[in-house]
């Protein structure tokens, strides 16, 4: 399998407690400090590319959603409705649900942004992206997903989507971002997760009931857009 930049940074586990000739330490000292420059350049390129993005919503969802599926159709509808409401649509730029949301936005004449990630196999941005930025580090890319969006919408997805969802939730819960509705679109898919949070995490005291209210579950694209625009209006009013 081909390596990636992220992997060269992270997958270096050498658990041997001894480093008799100092080779491990020397190797780390030789390479790791220089990675910072690469990381820095990635942030600079991202900030530069995104600097004129106005109101935007980041859409997450499975890379494996197929174009003939109801989830794909939902993604297209969502992208179109967000564009019609004046939001740029930001996705991971990949296939599946990301492509669907980009496609909906582009077809509706809206701004369609893809923040791609280097993967161990060749992959280009989906054809519906009109502003594309490619990242080598997941964490730099994640900053852009949050920094330039007013809300997150999650379509059905797997580990990647869960990771992005829970990162967003943690940022909102800890008030690192204060403006963020998070909508889970597709009630059949998401309700079980909400039930588990309410039925297991809340009674265990690991999250509070008010944290659950950070999540909105719906089947309706119109309601999704309504939740996002309502939150935007509140923010505008509170900053006036
Ligand atoms: C698995 C395949 C391609 C993967 N390509 C991806 N391209 C861009 N972004 C991706 C990709 N895979 C995951 N992501 C990110 O995670 C979320 C989706 O992950 P999930 O596990 O599929 O839910 C998505 O929002 C991306 O940001 C070949 O089909």
TrEMBL record:
It comes from the Bacteria. The keyword Hydrolase applies. Its EC number is 3.2.2.n1. Residues 1-27 are annotated as: Disordered. One of its GO terms (molecular function) is hydrolase activity. Residues 1-11 have a biased composition (Basic and acidic residues). One of its GO terms (cellular component) is cytosol. Keywords: Cytokinin biosynthesis, Hydrolase. This is Cytokinin riboside 5'-monophosphate phosphoribohydrolase. It comes from Williamsia herbipolensis.
């Amino acid at each position: 399998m081909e390596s990636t930049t992220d992997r060269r940074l992270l997958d270096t586990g050498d658990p041997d407690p001894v480093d008799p000739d100092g080779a491990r330490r020397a190797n780390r000292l030789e390479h790791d400090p220089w990675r910072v420059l690469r990381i820095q350049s990635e942030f600079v390129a991202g900030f530069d590319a995104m600097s004129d993005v106005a109101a935007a919503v980041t859409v997450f969802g499975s890379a494996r959603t197929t174009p003939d599926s109801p989830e794909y159709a939902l993604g297209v509808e969502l992208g179109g409705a967000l564009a019609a409401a004046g939001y740029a649509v930001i996705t991971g730029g990949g296939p599946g649900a990301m492509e669907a949301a980009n496609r909906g936005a582009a077809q509706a004449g809206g701004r369609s942004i893809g923040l791609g990630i280097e993967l161990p196999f060749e992959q280009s941005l989906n054809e519906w992206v009109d502003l594309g930025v490619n990242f080598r580090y997941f964490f730099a890319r994640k900053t852009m997903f949050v920094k330039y969006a007013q809300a997150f919408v999650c379509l059905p997805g797997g580990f990647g989507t869960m990771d992005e969802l829970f990162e967003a939730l943690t940022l909102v819960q800890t008030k690192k971002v204060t403006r963020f509705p998070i909508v889970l679109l597709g009630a059949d898919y998401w309700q079980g997760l909400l039930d588990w949070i309410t039925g297991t995490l809340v009674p265990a005291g690991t999250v509070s009931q008010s944290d659950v209210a950070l999540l909105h579950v719906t089947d309706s694209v119109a309601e999704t857009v309504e939740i996002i625009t309502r939150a935007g209006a509140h923010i505008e009013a509170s900053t006036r």
